[in-house]
Specification:
FAD/NAD(P)-binding domain, D-Amino Acid Oxidase, Chain A, domain 2, 15 helices, about 40% helix, eight-stranded mixed β-sheet, 20 strands, alpha/beta
Length: about 550
């Protein structure tokens, strides 16, 4: 008997896709093949614990898991940055973040707990979830023929499965990608190392400065994805619901080579030099308790693209890291799982004789790659900016505005699979992409001449009323006219913000070339709009 869908891999992308498919089409016969035995360990499992708004909406609203997330995972206190290279006291450096929770929720995810629970949910909903199962080989059918997958469970006799749709969610193993030679490199040469410890890391414990502690309400900075940043790198601190904490170093390979941090001992020596306050805390927590170190791993040149991800005629697809991956900064991995899973679900739902499946696959793939290509410039050659307390906070402000204003409405308002809407949006998306590319280049030029002042201050995102409202408005339910008005507002806001960023930069650096940005604005920006930027400190 042929199954409707076989999914290679049983991690986050595979499990959420299986649940989405079953929710949309309860009659589907779905098999999920996972190499690992379940339950998997909590904490010491996989990277990718921080979610942002598209992924949080996908998990919470699209899949209906909000109540589960509220109970079993941690509510995230946004992103938070400390320009703390070489610093022993965070109260004496610039902090970027929100002083209170912004309205639209996101979560810190313990992947071990989450994937165990998702696997149980899949079984409860009639999905054939097979853990401890190796994929030995597979043959891709063409033009309506079934796919064949040879599996082996617990060292037993090999078995063969047939299926109408084959979806690769095997992560970096990229089974279909390797078979079809779909791998594609990009210009982003960055590496990462990470580990987890069985202790909570709370930056509030690093000081008794009452004024600094009172900056946030609630004072729970530990719930943020905390970034300790310096030129060419950032260090993440992410809390997990199991009580563990995830620590990662992500670095430009040309500035901080991987071989300076690719063991735990090397990573600790690197932290002692660049982030001494974190090093001190880790050393104290792990002294005499090396069992508290739960894992250590690294990826070399982790960012990559893919030549193809959806094939409607031959009925195969790639989702999650089996397809492409950008960067852990801003946590887009979960977002791209949400987007690709939504496209795969729609392709399978529309797979009927004479239906639009093959045509839709081509359109969805173009949109998916457009989103990837729009986001990639946020990272390529931008890691030097992490050491700039003047320019990076404004780049982050811009990047959030681009994400919340342009990308999020497409997902929140269910427009990504709306062919008419996405066709109409192509010109607007191209416009936003062009302005964004020019701004990313401008940020680099600005940082090259920046004085990199680092005063003891909080750049409070929550104090920017327009910014907090942009976040709140993500969950608005919009009718047709309101959606198009919102997109128009987003494009105008980006242009106006770009103009204000250029004006601030050129006030201090009159010779800075802003022509590429101004040419792409085309006169749309509002010159008399209220100031959207952070107030500058009196010492600046």
């Amino acid at each position: 008997m042929a199954h409707d869908v076989v999914i290679l891999g049983g991690g986050l992308a595979a499990l959420t896709l299986s649940l989405q498919l079953k929710q949309r089409m309860p009659q589907l016969d779905i098999v999920v093949l996972e190499r690992r035995r379940h339950p998997v360990p909590h904490a010491a499992h996989k990277v990718g614990e921080s979610s942002v708004e598209i992924a949080a909406h996908y998990f919470g609203q699209v899949l209906g898991l909000r109540e589960y997330l509220e109970k079993a995972q941690l509510k995230k206190f946004g992103f938070r940055f400390f320009f703390s290279e070489g610093a022993h006291d965070l109260t004496q450096v610039t902090e970027l973040g929100a002083s209170t929770f912004l309205p639209t929720q996101s979560y810190q995810l313990d992947r071990g707990i989450l994937e165990n629970d998702l696997a149980a949910m899949a079984c409860e909903r009639g999905i054939d979830y097979r853990d401890g199962t190796l994929v030995r080989s597979f043959e891709l059918g063409q033009r309506g023929q079934s796919h064949r997958v040879t599996i082996e469970a617990d060292g037993g006799t090999p078995q063969q499965l047939e299926c109408r749709w084959l979806v690769d969610a095997s992560g970096r193993a990229g089974l279909v990608k390797r078979k079809l030679d779909l791998a594609q490199s990009n210009a982003h040469d960055v590496n990462a190392v990470w580990f987890r410890i069985g202790e909570r890391i709370d930056v509030n414990d690093w000081t008794d400065d009452a004024g600094w502690l009172a900056r946030c309400n609630p004072p729970n900075r530990w719930l943020s994805t905390n970034h300790l940043v310096g030129e060419g790198y950032w260090v993440w601190l992410i809390p997990l619901a199991s009580g563990s904490h995830s620590v990662g170093i992500v670095a430009d390979a040309t500035i901080h080579p991987l071989d300076t941090m690719n063991t735990f001992e090397k990573a600790m020596n690197w932290l002692q030099r660049y982030q001494p306050r974190l090093h001190r805390d880790l050393a104290e927590k792990l002294e005499g308790r090396h069992d508290k170190l739960q894992d250590f791993a690294f990826f070399k040149r982790f960012s990559y693209g893919c030549k193809r991800v959806f094939n409607g005629a031959d009925r195969w697809a790639l989702t999650g890291e089996a397809g492409l991956f950008l960067d852990p900064f801003y946590s887009p991995g979960g977002d791209f799982i949400a987007i690709s899973n939504t496209y795969v679900t729609e392709l399978i739902a529309q797979d009927q004789p004479g239906g639009p499946g093959p045509r839709l696959a081509g359109l969805y793939e173009r949109i998916y790659f457009l989103l990837y290509e729009s986001w990639l410039p946020l990272y390529v050659d931008q890691y030097k900016l992490f050491g700039d307390p003047e320019v990076l906070p404004l780049k982050v402000l811009w990047d959030y505005t681009f994400y919340w204003g342009v990308m999020c409405p497409l997902f929140f308002q269910n427009r990504l699979t709306d062919v008419a809407a996405m066709t109409r949006l192509q010109k607007s998306l191209a416009q936003a992409q062009a302005v964004n590319l020019a701004m990313q280049q401008f940020f680099r030029a600005w940082s090259d001449v920046s004085e990199r002042r680092n005063p003891a201050q909080l750049l409070d995102q929550a104090s920017l009323a327009w910014f907090a409202e942009l976040n709140r408005g993500l969950t608005d339910v919009l009718d047709e006219a309101s959606f198009w008005a919102r997109i128009g507002e987003a494009l105008l806001r980006l242009d106006t913000l770009a103009l204000q960023l250029v004006e601030r930069a050129r006030r201090d650096h009159p010779g800075l070339d802003a022509a590429p940005v101004l040419e792409r604005l085309g006169g749309r920006a509002q010159h008399d709009a209220p100031d959207m930027l952070f107030p500058e400190p009196a010492t600046a």
